[in-house]
Design brief:
This protein has helices spanning about 10-30, 75-90, 115-130, 135-140, 155-165, 170-175, 180-185, and strands spanning about 55, 60-70, 95-100, 200-205, 210. With about 230 residues, it is an alpha+beta fold. It has one domain (about 10-205): Glutaredoxin (3-Layer(aba) Sandwich). Helix 3 (about 115-130) runs antiparallel to helix 4.
Amino acid sequence: MAPAREVNWFAIWVSAAVVVVLIGVGALVVWLNNPSTETGDVPDAANISAETGAIVVGDGAGTLDTYIDFMCPICNQFEQAYGSAIQGLADDGTITLNIHPIAILDSRSQGTQFSSRAASAMYCVAEADAAASVPFMQAMFANQPEEGSPGLTDAQIIEIAGSVGVSGVDACINDGRYTKFVRAMTAKTPVQPGAGGIGTPTLAVNGKVISNSELPEPAALRSLFE
């Protein structure tokens, strides 16, 4: 993962809170009024929780749950700044990282449902090759489309999967096999303290959802699990 860079975190987290309020409230209302809550096809792999939708990385005693949307620019900034530190904690056995690819920004991709398709594709990849889960996430953020654009095509997403060594997932990605599962799991996303609805990125440390403003700088991230 990329090393942390200097960022005005106060400004970013304030902006994130605004996104949570403006997008999260609308998303929550949509979910509460959506008559269909069926999960559709469920990924079948030891590294994916059918109950929570978490893609599991590592096996440490501490847990860090991250809820991300591939269209969310702040999620990308979070990955660039904290990704290396998080991966280090997973690699050395400090934490179990639970990645939740969700979709709250489908309305920002000109009708292509990019957030749902991208999250579904991550399940396709994680199911096919657990070790490729994080590299695929990184590659998707490296190729992140702008909000308001149509997003990446399925063919482009398949190409990204191939770039991290995963093949045989074309049908899964083209079919959007896990989009219903993504939407069902999105409805389960916890709400940050003080927020008006669900948003991304959302973080839970050892099962407790925290405000993004509580997150220390990357170098001090380990302190959350001591």
